[in-house]
Amino acid sequence: MFSRILIANRGEIALRIIRAAKSMGIEAVCVYSKADADGSWLRLADETVCIGEAPSADSYLRIDRIISAAEVTSSDAIHPGYGFLAENAQFAEVCRDSGFAFIGPSPEAMGLLGDKVSCKNLARKAGTPIFPGTEDAIDELDEAVEMAELIGYPVIVKAAAGGGGRGMRIARDEQELRAGVISARQEAEAAFGDGRVYVEKFLEQARHFEIQCIGDSHGNAVHLYERDCTTQRRHQKLIEEAPAPHVDPERRDQVAASAAELIRQANYSGAATVEFLMDREQNFFMLEVNTRVQVEHPVSELISGVDVVAEQIRVAAGEPLSITQDQISVNGHAIECRINAEDPDRGFMPQAGLIECWRPPGGLGVRLDSHATAGYRIPPNYDSMIGKLIVHGPDRATAIARMKVALEEFEVGPIKTTIPLHRRLMDHPDFVSADFDIHYVERWLEDPSVATKA
User: Which segments of 239-317 are extended strands (E)?
Assistant: First the structure.
């Protein structure tokens, strides 16, 4: 097992990794930018190293400086967290070549699953359900048109190396498709340096469903069942819950097993999330695989009792998974609200600045993962998420009730946050009934009078 881990990240995920490492008797080293010099998580680290100025391009994305920090602090391994370099195969390869264990998949597995075209091809072999569409990236516009005519409109154009909604275009006819392929290629090239795109069937009404998996280097892979991430805005998740409501258990188990098999066949070691869309007939179609720990991993931890980050560390050290599939079961229901420093009434404008009031909630079944405190100044340089509020209860109704109480208790000011929005969402009839799709929040925000089914 490692003696020292360097954490190449910041904020709440850095704090989460510190806690897991220390619970395993491992020292934690944190790198930080000058904007994060007063970060609360740094006080819990055994050693800290400043690696640059506030912009991430000058700090958290500087592979050379992170490697140098690992060398001077005698670290054994590097944990990338999520975001920044977490899904950068080159970073994983440099870590390995420099003699540091990368707490994540190998560069080869990351490349295989991170590329959506090769991932779809492997999914076919693993029996993981996928969307009908092109098997490889398209070379000519006519290929896209032929596939659309075969599977029927609407279709969606996606970037092979994409994520976060970039390089995606929906097309409902040939004219939109031809224009969409061209613009998606341009956006993908600018965003990812890879302009390859492919075409697949688009679901008008769908729920977002994902399976948390963990694999090791001994050929083992397990799943921690599913999370429902349907409550989102512009492809950005707002609320995650587990298990997914109103899903046939037998069908769910089949999809979860196929996701674990996909991870196993990729020779994957580490935490991964296999994401799906589900239609109203509960047909599942794989979207992509996230080759890192997810923001919403606490939801899976609370229903399964498995420490996802600790398992990441164990398998990176070459140990087998500490649990087998038959030891994992679903216990109760968990809900997570992402608390962002944003003003929902002003187009979700980010709110950098000083937090003067910070009164977090508590009580039975309440967990708050956050680096924020009273007196913390939110820098304008990074993601606006300042915390994750997670509750757990014996059933969904109890979890919703506990979340409502926790959100009512949670006070943050004077900056604006998404807490008031979450309070409203907890009473939204579509959320309460779980009769929703991935666009219901956007419809509701545009016109609250017609967006609900109540």
Answer: 239-242, 270-278, 284-290
Report the pLDDT value the prediction gives residue 197, as an integer from 0 to 100: 94
370 φ/ψ angles, rounded to the nearest 5 degrees: -155, 145
The three-class DSSP label of residue 304 is: helix
Helices (H), 152-239: 174-192
Structure tokens given for 211:
């399976």
CA atoms of 327 and 308, how far apart (whole Å): 15
**DSSP secondary structure of 142-168:** HHHHHHHHHH-S-EEEEETT--TTTT-
Q: Which residues span the domain enclosing 232?
A: 207-446
Cβ neighbours of residue 102 closer than 8 Å, sequence gap 6 or more: 77, 78, 80, 91, 92, 95, 96, 316
Residues 281 and 353 in one domain: yes
Q: Into how many domains does the chain fold?
A: 3
Give the chain's length.
Answer: 454
In a domain, 399, yes or no: yes
Residue 116 confidence class, pLDDT cut points 50, 70, 90: confident
Catalytic entry in 207, 233, 292, 338: 292
Q: Residue 272 — pLDDT band, cuts 50, 70, 90? A: very high
What is the rounded distance in angstroms from the CA atom of residue 117 to the CA atom of residue 130?
Answer: 11
The reply to whether 216 and 270 lie within a common domain is yes
Domain boundary among 60, 89, 118: 89
CA–CA separation, 187 and 141 (whole Å): 16
Cα-Cα-Cα-Cα dihedral of 384, 400, 426, 328, to 10°?
50
Burial bucket for residue 112 (CB in 10 Å: 0-12, 13-18, 19+): buried
Residues 399-440: tens digit of each pLDDT:
999 999 999 999 999 999 999 999 999 999 999 999 999 999
- Percent of the chain past pLDDT 70, that is, above it, reads 98
CATH (domain of 396): 3.30.470.20
Domain co-membership, 277 together with 395:
yes
- Separation between Cα atoms, residue 328 and residue 113, nearest integer Å: 25
The question of whether 292 is a catalytic residue gets the answer yes
> For residues 174 and 355, what is the distance between their CA atoms, to the nearest angstrom?
51
pLDDT of 240 = 98
CB atoms closer than 10 angstroms to residue 360: 17
pLDDT band at 453 (very low <50, low <70, confident <90, very high): very low
Both tokens assigned to 352 = 């950098």
